[in-house]
Prior knowledge:
Layout: E1 13-22, E2 29-39, E3 44-48, H1 55-62, E4 70-75, E5 78-79, H2 88-95, E6 96-99, H3 111-122, H4 130-136, H5 152-164, E7 170-174, H6 182-197, E8 201-205, E9 217-222, E10 225-231
Parallel strand pairs: 3-8, 3-9, 6-7, 7-8
Antiparallel strand pairs: 1-2, 1-4, 4-5, 9-10
Bound molecules: adenosine-5'-triphosphate.
Amino acid sequence: MSTDTTVVANRGVRVxxxxxxxxxxxxxxxxxxxxxLELASGELVVILGPSGSGKTTLCNIIGGIETSTEGxxxxxxxxxxxxPPGRLSxxxxxxxxxxFQFFNLIPTLTARENVEVIIEMTGRGNRTQVPEFLxxxxxxxxxxxxxxxxxxxQQQRVAVARALATDxxxxxxxxxxxxxxxxxGQQILGLLQELHRQGRTIIVVTHNASxxxxxxxxxxxxxxxxxxxxxxxxxxxxxxxxx
Length: 243
Ligand SMILES: Nc1ncnc2c1ncn2[C@@H]1O[C@H](COP(=O)(O)OP(=O)(O)OP(=O)(O)O)[C@@H](O)[C@H]1O
């Protein structure tokens, strides 16, 4: 008899017939025009596409920041299609983490406090583990520093630690290397790969086609539609990606 009671989390995403229209009448913007997308649990996906193609809108809907106009969205086994906007915060708290281009740290809080505050706000995670998270991103010796005392790469690493503190199923990274130089950007991509190896589903949005080399799959959006979805049989190591 098997004694293995390991439960493998469902960290997948299933999107069907997704549309998003901003505004109405003559000023309506059709940002997403019927997206069907399935991400396997633990997949690292890079979404490319020109400015205005709908990348952020798609991620915001999957991440529970925005609601769709039509279509179904299931994330980590939760169907959020009909959840009213006011109730999506519960879903976000329990399932998703975000990393932004400009870090979005609170300037008056130290690195450690920036991570602790998310644990306090969400009630998820364990404050005593915050030093571990900061050590994991290489900032064990800078926990007491304020964002203004840290480099861009160090601030982004705090943001990664903050995103991890609530143990999200899905991690969104919107232009995570956009404000960083090449070596620092490579380090951040390396961290994302490490989190991917730990089994998280990761969605990276970027204009930088080189970043796509680390992906399991590259999805290209054009004008609110999926123009291509390409599996990458041999994802590159972050250290080998240049731009
Ligand atoms: N809140 C909003 N109100 C009206 N239109 C919006 C809103 N948010 C996005 N849009 C429009 O929806 C379309 C898709 O925008 P989105 O930000 O998703 O594109 P993107 O691919 O992420 O672009 P970028 O690469 O420039 O960030 C654009 O035409 C944009 O102007």
